[in-house]
Write a structure and sequence with these properties.
single chain; alpha+beta; Arc Repressor Mutant, subunit A; Muramoyl-pentapeptide Carboxypeptidase, domain 2; 2 domains; four-stranded antiparallel β-sheet; 13% strand
Length: 242
């Protein structure tokens, strides 16, 4: 089975999938509840499993980023004869959550938090601050498009990179002759409750993204329809074919 979507989304799915194993899930919960570095021996004793089994599952949790490791001598001795450092485990700082379809409320939260801070510190209207933050996000995504496309990329490659970056952001872009529809709104619940604010933010960000790569021949417009993003990208076919 292939997981489609952003790399981050696939990583989140892998993290949750790793817990779909009873011993591994129990180990992860125990490490989290323990709250400190733990050894393989401690984990094995706590769950009453073989040390080799504990080591196998602990390292699987490290591989998907749910745990992190540190090496330390448990005897407290140094120098020759002190023994090899033990591999210790603790919960990583990574947070794991998956929503289907993909949502990016973290992006909206950061953007709005930055806008509130700017409005407060610079004494400007909150709507202006949100628009500025959205433009900053759009320019950042535009830079990502250019990096993805590579130096001296063709217009067609830039358009392809634009679609890739939008896909990574959870929009699920779909090309339809002279436009790209975005079949998923990454901010759906917020957009349902705060439609004017979120759609304006979305439009500003995506318009800035498209403007950052004019060679791709895309422009963002409002085109709300049920069950998808309120923004569509109009395509200049002559530009995209270059």
């Amino acid at each position: 089975m292939t997981i489609e979507g952003s790399g981050e989304f696939a990583e989140q799915v892998a993290g949750i999938a790793a817990l779909d194993e009873p011993i591994r899930a129990r180990l992860y919960q125990w490490v989290v509840e323990h709250g400190d570095l733990v050894s393989r021996d401690e984990a094995a004793a706590a769950l009453e499993i073989a040390r080799s089994v504990a080591a196998f599952h602990l390292d699987k949790l490290v591989a998907v980023g749910l745990l992190e490791t540190e090496f330390r001598r448990l005897t407290g001795r140094r120098g020759p004869g002190a023994g090899r450092p033990a591999k210790l485990y603790r919960r990583s700082s990574r947070e794991v959550q998956v929503s289907l379809p993909e949502r990016r409320y973290d992006v909206a939260g950061r953007l709005l938090a930055e806008a509130v801070r700017a409005a407060s510190s610079q004494d400007i209207p909150i709507d202006d601050a949100v628009a500025t933050s959205a433009r900053d996000l759009g320019r950042s995504l535009g830079s990502r498009v250019r990096e993805r496309a590579g130096a001296e990329a063709s217009a067609a490659r830039l358009r392809s990179a634009l679609l890739e970056v939008l896909r990574e952001q959870g929009y699920r872009p779909r090309v339809e002759s002279d436009r790209v529809t975005l079949d998923n709104c990454p901010f759906r619940l917020l957009a349902q409750e705060y439609t004017e604010l979120m759609c304006a933010m979305n439009l500003t960000a995506l318009a800035e993204t498209a403007a950052a790569v004019p060679e791709a021949g895309a422009s963002a417009k409002l085109g709300p329809e049920p069950d998808r993003c309120c923004v569509v990208l109009r395509l200049d076919e002559a530009a995209g074919a270059a």
